[in-house]
Amino acid sequence: MYSIIGGGIGGLTTALAFEKLGIDYQLYEKANDLKPVGSGILLPPNALQVFQWLGILDELMKKGNSMKRITLTDQNMSSLFDYQQDDIKEKFGFYSLSIHRWELQKILLHKLPESKIHLGKSLISFNQLENNIDLLFADSTVVRTKFLIGADGIHSNVRKHLFPKSQIRYSGQTCWRGICTFSDTFEEYQHRGIEMWGVNGRFGITKIEENRFYWFAVVNSPQNLKDELGEVKRKLSKVFNRFHPMVKHLINETSEKNIIKGDLSDLKPMSRWYKENVCLLGDAAHATTPNMGQGGAQAIEDAYFLAKIIKMQKNVNAFKVFQEKRMKKVNLIVRRSRLMGIIGHWRYFTGIRNFVLKNTPRSILKEQWGIVYKLKS
């Protein structure tokens, strides 16, 4: 039996993939209840191909919003590049989809048997025996399992025990994410993702469902700074006061309780994701900054490939094959995403940067995104 630690996107997708292929599993999540939290998430074509295979694509489409066009601009909304993604849809079957993270999590959760989902189970430690693993939880229960999958995020407890020298790297940037409601504002942005690069930071916007927009604001910042209660909107309005007026409007129209702050970090690429019968998956193995919109997608891809390898390739070390299949692509995304964050926050030479972006051949951009979006079985 496989025990999955973590009830986030990666863990739930893995459970659903195991369910589809008849692989025996149980999932353990430390939260006592899965509640509507979080903000928006981007599901690019590679993730949507997995969800089509899992049979939940139609439900996701009803809850999310297709992004047919991606635009990068300066802080005044002057275009640096504008990518109509019809060719992406033609090649891979889908536009990217923006959706509230909770809607995705809820759809996944409702497809799984309640008997296989265990809440309030915080893993403290595990002991690898000759042929089994004993899992010790905070409630003093012990579960014996054959295989352990750590899908418990960037601060993975499984990884800390497996690879104690692994390193979480702060990017130097922090991010606020918000969701606000509009009736008819920003009609021209209904199916368009926009990111503005300015001197003081970056600001992005996309519609996630009917009359609801998701936005994010990123700035260079020391780590672990706290916001004063009631001062978040005033602070953001001041930081982004030179940006297009739409930015201030979005911030002002958002309830402070719907604004979430988090430092942006990634995981220094590791040489291994597994030891014996324990394996890491998603952010626990290869957390990336969100600059390419691929963090969730790569966890979803992990679930797809791991399940297929376990089911289809008998008499092999499935975790070894999984790592060999996934590591090259994932590490490429981690590196590029980190570099993208650095370039997006240059305080100097922004004119040169913007000139290069404006004049980069679209064929190069399409080729690069094609590598990311391709899902090879």
Report on the architecture of this protein.
With 377 residues, the chain is α/β, with parallel strands linked by helices. The chain has one domain (2-168, 266-373): FAD/NAD(P)-binding domain (3-Layer(bba) Sandwich). The protein has helices spanning 9-21, 45-54, 57-63, 86-92, 101-110, 157-162, 232-239, 245-252, 283-286, 295-312, 318-344, 350-359, 362-373, and strands at 2-5, 25-29, 40-43, 65-67, 69-74, 79-84, 96-100, 117-119, 123-128, 133-137, 142-145, 147-150, 168-181, 192-197, 202-209, 212-220, 259-267, 274-275, 278-280. It has a 7-stranded mixed β-sheet. Helix 1 (9-21) runs parallel beside helix 10 (295-312), helix 7 runs antiparallel to helix 8 and helix 10 packs antiparallel against helix 11 (318-344).
Strand count, sense and barrel status of the largest sheet are:
7 strands, mixed
CATH fold node name: FAD/NAD(P)-binding domain
Q: Quick check: average pLDDT? A: 91
> Helix tally?
13
> What structural class results from the helix and strand content?
alpha/beta
Radius of gyration over C-alpha positions, nearest whole angstrom: 21 Å
Number of strands: 19
The CATH level-2 architecture is identified as: 3-Layer(bba) Sandwich
Order of adjacent strands in the largest pleated sheet: 6-5-14-15-16-13-17
Entry keywords:
alpha/beta, 377 residues
